[in-house]
Amino acid sequence: MIRAYLKESLSWLQLAFFKPFTLQEEARRMTRKRALAIYLKISPAGFLIILILLAVVGAVCEMAGAPFNWTAAFRGWLAGCLVFGLGGLFWSLLGLSLGADLFLGLFGSLLFGLRFSLGFGLSFFLVYGLIFGLFGGLVFRPDSRLMFGLIISLIGGLFVIPFFGPVKGSSEILRFGTGYLVTVTFSFSRSFYLLPYLIQYWRSGAARNPFAFFRNSPVYWDEVIAMPLPFLSRWLVELAQSDREQGLAEISFIASNRPYQRRAAQKALLAVVTDDLRQVDRIEKLARAGELFEAFPSKAKYLPSGFDEARRRISSLAANARRYESANPVTRLVLLERMAVDVEDFRTAIAQTPIGMDFYPIAERWLDIVKAAEEKMRRRLDFTPIRNPFIAGNALLEVDGKLFKGRRDIIRALEENIIHPRQRTALLLYGRKRIGKSSTLLNLPNLISAEYIPVYIDLQEAKWREGDGVFCYHLAKAVYHELFQAALSEGLKQPSESEFDQRPFTRLAEYLDDVEEVLRRVRKQALITFDEYERMEAGIENGRITTEVLNQLRHLVQHRQGLVFLFSGSHRFEELKIVNWADYLINTKTLELSFLEPEEARELMERPVPEFNMRYEPGVVDKILELTHRHPYLLQAIGSELVNQLNMRNRTTATMDDLNAVVEKTLVSSQAYFHYVWTDECSDEERGVLAELALGEEIKQDRRGAALQSLVRKEIVEKGQNGYRLTVEMFHFWILKNGAASGSERVS
User: Fold this and answer.
1) For an engineered disulfide with 347, which of 139, 233, 363, 596 has Cβ 3.0 to 4.6 Å away?
2) Please, how many CA atoms are within 13 Å of residue 681, restricted to the half-sphere of its CB?
3) C-alpha distance from residue 217 to each of 172, 192, 213, 231 (Å)
4) Helix (H, G, I), strand (E, B), or coil: what is residue 457?
5) pLDDT computed for residue 48 by the predictor
6) How far, in Å, CA of 98 to CA of 400, rounded?
């Protein structure tokens, strides 16, 4: 039983001395009661070990002819056990650190024993420095840094020495300084490990299994070796070269569990990875480059700064390289162009990180490889593939500004209606689905006067319907974000969500007061745009937000001189049933967004971007405008399909035959849009009218008048010289193609 007790005690003391990080992890999982029990259990064995150490010191002193007072040493040891043992117990009760508990009690008793037996001789100061070096290093260093441990131990000395008695004369100060500096440095650095470490390193060089020698070296014994170990990076690299998987595991182990050797592990990691990446000398190898990072966890603390960014970019490059392997020649060229841009971006980004010196030359080499492959592919092809600039379906972001065409009339009308703050009313930007409302709002920074700061709010996001307080918080946050991006947020505090938990509307009013003060100072106004405003009805219907939000918006419209409010949606107020919007947004002026003007639509098809190299045979663009009625979404969809069609056939000029083939493809690829117009925007009676028009039947206005006028108002039907017809001819084709004219139930 005594043997088991001693074994357990030595095990805990071994952890405290050699592996304080492991001890700290163990202590975190303990309750305070458990830690206290361990301290009480281990302390007797520890005090006994200290007594043995005192005896060893006494024997050495007598052998060296130095005086040693055994009685005083024993009394000091007893006093230290009592004073510092109780101190460690108090520390344990506070639950601060199990390692601190042990060292405070054990080394305190040793310090007392030495003080009363050696006085203030050099021997005492040497041992004192050792004790406080270990105490400051092992107790404080796991949570701090080497320098903090040194400072703590030095401060401890300044407090403890006067407690024992005054230090007299410069000789004692010199002895204190000498003993302290020598022994603290020695205990912190653990320089006594240098020889066994070097022996194991040299032995591993000629061994079949170098890992056995590495795992028996001091870097495995002791977690807190602060001294930079020579050749450690080289040793880790050699281990990885011997067995990549095991070697990387050892690098990860050292970086994660030996913080004072982390720099060496990081250096080894970079050496291994960069050596692998230097072997990438063709596109096929680049496709496998991402696999080189699989051994490393994402965002691990030990990874050097910039490593995760490099991994992300290289993985993206590798994905395109894999697509390159199975692509046709035209697509290969497009992918190579994209990869060249990505490598240039990678080179620029990585140059700003600490690992830039290692990765920058690799990026330079890869760029040469990609550009050489690109040039080779161009020589193989008879033509330069057309870069597809058309974006069908998604709103055009501000960065897509070159693709945004027209809408000058809307911008002019918008500025005319917001130029006089005192005469300002709410504005509604109305237009049917896919007509370009979101694109217009997102591109306002490129279109509107610099006097206005657009704040885009997409009410399709669920966060705007989670509650009144959340709505107010996100509104304040959106305004702050745009002012911050425009470098105009000086003096304005970033809103916190907790501020809006209580009295959210009052807090919003207070925050907007501050916003208006900033805007007045810089002589600007904020244009707040609510896209898809109808989505708020869902939040009101399910009770997540209240109509107080609408009352607040009405108040803001009427009383805020520095804020302009624009609502955008595909329904007029009278078309909505849940909320009486006209009651909340009084005197709203509607700006209607319709089809593009002929010259705007032609510019979109012929010159979507300056470098566009696709050409059209005579009459093709006119036919596109006729089929789509200049609808922005359909123009983009047909343009995208035409580019793909010509690239597949290695041509740059679109013919009427190409257009006919593309129209059929667009009817399929745009199925979701046509289906929405048919099922969601039209009633049963309106679908009946559309079916009759598609089949060329005569419309009886006395029976279909209301439905017909509704369709005209929605711009789905228009009145021509020979009567009514579908506005967009492609929708006409879709109805016939899907059998919709013979019954709405056939369209799913």
Assistant:
1) 363
2) 23
3) 39, 13, 6, 13
4) strand
5) 66
6) 60
Cα dist from 32 to 46, 301, 400, whole Å: 20, 28, 60
Q: Are strands 615-616 and 653-654 parallel, antiparallel or unpaired?
A: parallel
Residue 44 in this model has a pLDDT that exceeds 70: no
Average pLDDT of the chain to the nearest whole number: 78
d(CA 190, CA 169): 32
The dihedrals phi and psi of 590, each to the nearest 5 degrees, come to -95, 130
* pLDDT reported for residue 93: 45
Q: How far is CA 352 from the centre of its chain?
A: 18
Is the pLDDT confidence value at 117 over 90? no
Give the position of tokens 């009339």.
409
**For residues 613 and 654, what is the distance between their CA atoms, to the nearest angstrom?**
11
Q: Output the 3-class SS for 365-417.
A: HHHHHHHHHHHHHHHHCCCCCCCCCCCCCCCCCHHHHHHCCCCHHHHHHHHHH
Q: For the chain, how many helices (H) and strands (E)?
A: 34, 9
SS3 of 729, please? Answer: helix
Q: Is residue 161 within 8 Å of 144, Cβ to Cβ?
A: no
Q: Can you tell me the mean pLDDT for 291-313?
A: 75
Select from 221, 71, 60 the least CA-distant residue to 127: 60
In order of 74, 140, 214, the CA distances from 83 in angstroms are 14, 21, 42
Q: Give the separation between CA 211 and CA 204, rounded to whole angstroms.
A: 8
* Cβ–Cβ < 8 Å for 392, 633: yes
pLDDT for residue 715 is more than 70 = yes
Question: What domains are there in the chain, each with its CATH number?
Answer: 2-192 (no CATH), 227-380 (no CATH), 407-592 (3.40.50.300), 598-669 (1.10.8), 673-746 (1.10.10)
Radius of gyration of the chain (CA): 39
